[in-house]
């Protein structure tokens, strides 16, 4: 085994131990260690991706401690896992950098260490969900991720965030409970916890017809559990407050990474545990399709009626998660590819929107009201550019990443016509129009000049990009990332197709 194949294991350990070590460090050094850990893991993941592409290995299994199950634990790594790990690190690093200045305003200085510990724990849990080949290990890190996310929501400790954290915890525990129940039932039916071993037994069960109904019920329970945790409509009630009132870095990471980690785990379960043939032949796909369409419409309509800019972006996330599950529900390879691509698009774009929004509200006397944003795009030009790019991407304007993912969804619906084609195309068109209504009206609002007298009365002020160099650099990098996904999508799509083929 080449040494570089140890990268998944070391990535999880580095992020986990950086959190442990941060507990005894000063705020300054905890921040530096957090940044270094994310950067190192990202570079290692990129190196692993390059190695896998050059060697053509596809994927491999790494036994932690070099002991086979059940005494050891298995990690399975491929091009999709390595690529997703690298992308998550990029988004997390930019989200932390863009919201670093606001952290001092939003969180007490004495709690900064705790904040960095929680971020490190979140990173380690996301990496474990990406790489693990063991269902019980996945559940353990799902709970670690839940605790970290809950801590990041309530660390501001005001009424809104505590209420949001309680809602998140209740819904998340419901989802985790259903996931654990499903894993226990699956272990009872198959006698295994390793994904590859379960799949072999699953094929036998479905072939001879024994325990077919209990097996499908088990699969349904696990799917519902992860759908709840990823905020699929109608289990999204916790999301607007959690994203809307947490710190800006927390909102960016929760929106772009946490829910996507659960969705990625669900994809792995579909491919590696259950098998696509079983999934596509069941009613599970149809249910996900319907709720995905409902989420697309409900999230968009709710965003139109929202006057708080951050809650508007949060409701938009409900719609975008609906897109992903709608792609699953199409029941074909093209739909799955479109969904995975949209995970990347949503992660890059929604983080950009949250980071940009805080720059606009800062120069509007801290007001998050839609009506207070007049001229904010001129008062903070770099934030205005970032919000405009993110909005155009979410609407689906060409050259931006959102255009590619919506095109992939439409193509997936049309390429193999079924009864799902017309609902998909119609809802996709309606959702796009609704996206344009609430995003473009906000862009118009921030670029509508405000009277100078009114600005002075309300305490508005302007800030130049050279007065916020780190923030400006973050926005620029997010914009570049969005344009790369929008204008150079073919290599990314090929990587996704290759990775999903390796899953199967």
| Unreliable runs | none
Radius of gyration: 22 Å
Beta-strand proportion? under 5%
> What is the total domain count?
2
Q: Looking at the structure, what is the overall shape?
A: globular
In the sheet with the most strands, the strands line up as: 1-2
Helical percentage? over 70%
Structural classification: mainly alpha
Separation of the first and last Cα atoms: 23 Å
Order of helices and strands: HHEEHHHHHHHHHHHHHHHHHHHH
Write down the overall mean pLDDT.
85
The largest sheet, given as strand count, sense and whether it forms a barrel, is:
2 strands, antiparallel
Classify the oligomer: single chain
Q: In total, how many beta strands?
A: 2
Please tally the helical runs, counting DSSP H or I stretches of 4 or more residues.
22
Please provide a written account of the structure.
The chain is mainly α. It folds into two domains: 1-260, no CATH class; 283-504, no CATH class. Helices cover 77% and strands 2% of the residues. The protein has 22 helices and two strands. It has helices at 7-22, 27-55, 79-98, 100-106, 112-131, 135-154, 159-190, 195-208, 212-229, 239-245, 248-274, 276-281, 284-305, 309-329, 333-362, 376-379, 381-395, 401-415, 421-446, 452-458, 469-487, 489-503; strands spanning 59-64, 73-78. A two-stranded antiparallel sheet has the order 1-2. A hairpin with an 8-residue loop joins β1 (59-64) and β2 (73-78). α3 (79-98) runs parallel beside α15, α7 (159-190) packs antiparallel against α9 and α18 (401-415) packs parallel to α21 (469-487). The longest helix is centred in the middle third of the chain and has 32 residues, at 159-190. The protein is globular and about 80 Å long. The two termini are 23 Å apart. The model has no long low-confidence stretch (mean pLDDT 85).
């Amino acid at each position: 085994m080449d040494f570089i194949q140890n990268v998944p294991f070391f990535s999880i350990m580095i992020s986990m131990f950086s959190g442990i070590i941060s507990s005894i460090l000063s705020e300054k050094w905890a921040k530096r260690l957090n940044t270094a850990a994310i950067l190192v893991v990202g570079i290692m993941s990129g190196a692993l991706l390059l190695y896998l592409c050059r060697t053509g290995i596809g994927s491999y299994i790494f036994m932690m401690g070099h002991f086979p199950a059940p005494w050891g634990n298995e990690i399975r790594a491929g091009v999709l896992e390595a690529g997703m790990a690298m992308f998550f690190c990029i988004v997390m690093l930019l989200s932390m950098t863009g919201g670093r200045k606001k952290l001092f305003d939003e969180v007490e200085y004495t709690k900064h260490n705790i904040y960095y510990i929680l971020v490190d724990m979140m990173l380690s849990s996301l990496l474990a969900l990406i790489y693990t080949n063991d269902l019980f290990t996945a559940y353990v890190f799902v709970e670690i991720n839940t605790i970290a996310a809950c801590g990041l929501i309530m660390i501001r400790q005001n009424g809104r965030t505590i209420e949001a954290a309680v809602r998140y915890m209740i819904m998340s525990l419901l989802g985790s409970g259903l996931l654990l129940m499903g894993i226990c039932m699956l272990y009872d039916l198959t006698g295994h916890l390793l994904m590859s071993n379960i799949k072999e037994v699953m094929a036998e069960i479905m072939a001879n017809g024994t325990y077919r109904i209990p097996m499908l019920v088990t699969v349904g329970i696990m799917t519902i559990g992860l759908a709840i945790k990823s905020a699929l409509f109608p289990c999204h009630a916790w999301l607007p407050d959690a994203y809307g009132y947490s710190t800006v870095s927390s909102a960016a990471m929760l929106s772009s990474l946490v829910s996507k980690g659960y969705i990625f785990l669900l994809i792995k379960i579909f491919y590696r545990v259950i098998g696509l043939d079983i999934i596509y032949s069941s009613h599970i796909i149809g249910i996900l399709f319907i709720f995905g369409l409902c989420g697309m419409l409900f999230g968009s309509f709710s965003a139109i009626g929202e006057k708080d800019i951050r809650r508007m972006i949060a409701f938009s996330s409900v719609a975008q998660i609906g897109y992903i599950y709608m792609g699953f529900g199409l029941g074909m390879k093209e739909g799955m590819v479109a969904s995975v691509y949209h995970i990347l698009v949503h992660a890059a774009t929604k983080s950009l929107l949250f980071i940009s929004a805080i720059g606009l509200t800062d120069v509007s006397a801290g007001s998050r009201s839609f009506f207070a944003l007049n001229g904010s795009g001129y008062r903070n030009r770099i934030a205005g550019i970032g919000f405009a790019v993110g909005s155009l991407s979410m609407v689906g304007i060409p050259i931006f990443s959102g255009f590619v993912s919506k095109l992939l969804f439409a193509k997936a619906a049309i390429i193999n016509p079924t009864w799902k084609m017309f609902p998909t195309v119609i809802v996709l068109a309606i959702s796009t129009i609704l996206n344009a209504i609430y995003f473009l009206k906000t862009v118009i609002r921030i670029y509508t000049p405000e009277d100078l007298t009114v600005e002075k009365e309300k305490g508005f002020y302007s800030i130049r990009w050279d007065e916020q160099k780190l923030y400006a650099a973050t926005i620029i990098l997010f914009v570049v990332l969005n344009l790369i996904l929008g204008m150079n999508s073919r290599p990314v799509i090929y990587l996704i197709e290759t990775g999903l083929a390796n899953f199967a």
